[in-house]
């Protein structure tokens, strides 16, 4: 079954269940585990059911088209407790990952504004201060540059800090530390000091938060040598990436999205991580490769519903690793479909999409039947007005049109 | 004993609340934060000895007053004196050698020399243990040497050779040594101060969370007068005082930030006064006198070790050379330069040692000679060391080279043999 869902907003909640079955049905709509387990990777092919309250006007979502999301009998009771794993929201998944790592390694600590007593402005660190103490879950004063630097200094001297930016945009104030120290010090010290820091926070365009709270910093940070960037999009990969980032010896920036914190999914009980450098196959297909990450994944999947109805078969990949790109997964897809559409929330100029376009052109030009199409947000400071904000980001209708154009 | 740090004598706990009235209430959870009252109960009742921060005092007066009363006992022993002398001579000779080598085309880029400021480095760093950390700025050669990094390693690093302390990848402004706990070397001013705060935080974390009972490592952050107008400085003063981190902020006020006089850049040029605003003692000391610096350093480092929190020490010092070897140094008044040249810290210490019969001329000359030979050896070593090969290019970008990602062929890029050759394109 193809996974098609749309999940945003505080009121919405979705049930997603990872597919554990290996269905050898060759039809377009069958779930396939696309690549054999490479380096212990796990791909989640997600299924969904249930409708969602989509937008501000309160209209019900489009009725799910039965032949696009053919729900089988066992997925209907996806939320029943007889299935393995446990259900939670994305922010709870992040918290769970963080808590497990803090229990596992006493050197893991959290620093940020309002992470302690307040529990985190998006509740990712809820209750952690009570459990681990004020020093391990440190409420910092409002001094991003300095407390990020403090995190870097602590990382260099043996701790494993997780620095939270209350909003990713605030980390612009920490750019000095992130670029000069976080990215560079391992190199300029000749390898003597490692900086196993995780810098995380919510970013992206929310619901009328205004220009400064709606920034996408991945485009600014991507050039910094020495750091890795990942973006989570589901509870499963949120927890997995959080854990992998904390365990990594490299500095990792984990991008979360303000609108995705309340996604619900059933995740495994056992310990797992998601590989930091790998992309995630969301929906295998044949006609066109759609590369996306973070919130745009959901717009793409919604567009995919429409596309499938119209007879297209898009392959959707959540690139997850924004730096470095997983050129293997992406390349294999390009070699299969020969058409690429990139859908991102970054700005048009110098965003992740721009880099990805360059990388694909450099490496897979011979396999392309058409120029790469990149749908990005407008180069506009995000307006407050809802109608304007809606058109600054890519909407599913644009994605459908773009695929139709590409596949002509 | 009058010191500049008349903080009230506290009970042993590093973060118990200070106000005496709370001692009868049992503490449940230690409060990690400021214990200063928001409002004084009438400013006329301000009792200096009750305040958590000490009064602001020019220590040079205090130390000067000390000496006559301790008649027979001097401030240092002979061994200590020779150690200080040797360290300062090493610093001076090394920097002079750097200048020579730079003009001979052996080292490049921006090189910032420390001539004249040796008393600060020696006075502070010689009191540290190996596990204590030092964070410096771009004027870091002498801090590295005082901390124990071998001259050979520093000289090679300056020559850009692979035997340098940072494998030639850091250069003059990025001296690091994990063995000696020298955490940089930073090119932008102020950006090392948060890193130092983090190192101090680690030390406190080790003691209180990881329960490493005897962890009392202290961090020293060195920076200049120009940095004291930078936001990171103030943000870190706040955090360090708030959490009582074991750190000493050492301001090397040499009155000039390249060509900007401290007086032209700072609304209140008395930097030490900024400490009490954050709840820590602010001390001013004559940075051309290594013994005075050492006395202050002892107190400040002792405070940090005991968990009493940070101190801000302003050392009034001077750099005899320009800001860097590229600086023509035309703006500084020759009279000012002459004034400080007359107070050369090495000459002063030499005089002290000889007058107090701690060492003779011959002994000191022997040390001079020893340092000269050491430096000759360091230069020779650096000359003969190999330049970094191309294969070194990509080695230290990531601690875990998987960070370069997965290439089109499905393998991690770091497994590509071109990686070890340094010719891979990433």
UniProtKB/TrEMBL annotation, chain A:
<comment type="subunit">
    <text>Tetramer of 2 alpha and 2 beta subunits.</text>
</comment>
<dbReference type="GO" id="GO:0004739">
    <property type="term" value="F:pyruvate dehydrogenase (acetyl-transferring) activity"/>
</dbReference>
<dbReference type="InterPro" id="IPR029061">
    <property type="entry name" value="THDP-binding"/>
</dbReference>
<dbReference type="InterPro" id="IPR009014">
    <property type="entry name" value="Transketo_C/PFOR_II"/>
</dbReference>
<dbReference type="GO" id="GO:0009507">
    <property type="term" value="C:chloroplast"/>
</dbReference>
<dbReference type="InterPro" id="IPR005475">
    <property type="entry name" value="Transketolase-like_Pyr-bd"/>
</dbReference>
<keyword id="KW-0479">Metal-binding</keyword>
<keyword id="KW-0670">Pyruvate</keyword>
<keyword id="KW-0560">Oxidoreductase</keyword>
<dbReference type="InterPro" id="IPR033248">
    <property type="entry name" value="Transketolase_C"/>
</dbReference>
<keyword id="KW-0630">Potassium</keyword>
<dbReference type="Pfam" id="PF02780">
    <property type="entry name" value="Transketolase_C"/>
</dbReference>
<feature type="domain" description="Transketolase-like pyrimidine-binding">
    <location>
        <begin position="88"/>
        <end position="263"/>
    </location>
</feature>
<dbReference type="Pfam" id="PF02779">
    <property type="entry name" value="Transket_pyr"/>
</dbReference>
<keyword id="KW-0934">Plastid</keyword>
<keyword id="KW-0809">Transit peptide</keyword>
<keyword id="KW-0786">Thiamine pyrophosphate</keyword>
<protein>
    <recommendedName>
        <fullName>pyruvate dehydrogenase (acetyl-transferring)</fullName>
        <ecNumber>1.2.4.1</ecNumber>
    </recommendedName>
</protein>
<keyword id="KW-0150">Chloroplast</keyword>
<dbReference type="GO" id="GO:0046872">
    <property type="term" value="F:metal ion binding"/>
</dbReference>
<comment type="function">
    <text>The pyruvate dehydrogenase complex catalyzes the overall conversion of pyruvate to acetyl-CoA and CO(2). It contains multiple copies of three enzymatic components: pyruvate dehydrogenase (E1), dihydrolipoamide acetyltransferase (E2) and lipoamide dehydrogenase (E3).</text>
</comment>
TrEMBL record, chain B:
<keyword id="KW-0786">Thiamine pyrophosphate</keyword>
<dbReference type="InterPro" id="IPR017597">
    <property type="entry name" value="Pyrv_DH_E1_asu_subgrp-y"/>
</dbReference>
<dbReference type="Pfam" id="PF00676">
    <property type="entry name" value="E1_dh"/>
</dbReference>
<comment type="function">
    <text>The pyruvate dehydrogenase complex catalyzes the overall conversion of pyruvate to acetyl-CoA and CO(2). It contains multiple copies of three enzymatic components: pyruvate dehydrogenase (E1), dihydrolipoamide acetyltransferase (E2) and lipoamide dehydrogenase (E3).</text>
</comment>
<feature type="domain" description="Dehydrogenase E1 component">
    <location>
        <begin position="87"/>
        <end position="388"/>
    </location>
</feature>
<keyword id="KW-0670">Pyruvate</keyword>
<dbReference type="GO" id="GO:0004739">
    <property type="term" value="F:pyruvate dehydrogenase (acetyl-transferring) activity"/>
</dbReference>
<dbReference type="InterPro" id="IPR001017">
    <property type="entry name" value="DH_E1"/>
</dbReference>
<protein>
    <recommendedName>
        <fullName>Pyruvate dehydrogenase E1 component subunit alpha</fullName>
        <ecNumber>1.2.4.1</ecNumber>
    </recommendedName>
</protein>
<dbReference type="InterPro" id="IPR050642">
    <property type="entry name" value="PDH_E1_Alpha_Subunit"/>
</dbReference>
<comment type="subunit">
    <text>Tetramer of 2 alpha and 2 beta subunits.</text>
</comment>
<dbReference type="InterPro" id="IPR029061">
    <property type="entry name" value="THDP-binding"/>
</dbReference>
<dbReference type="GO" id="GO:0006086">
    <property type="term" value="P:pyruvate decarboxylation to acetyl-CoA"/>
</dbReference>
<keyword id="KW-0560">Oxidoreductase</keyword>
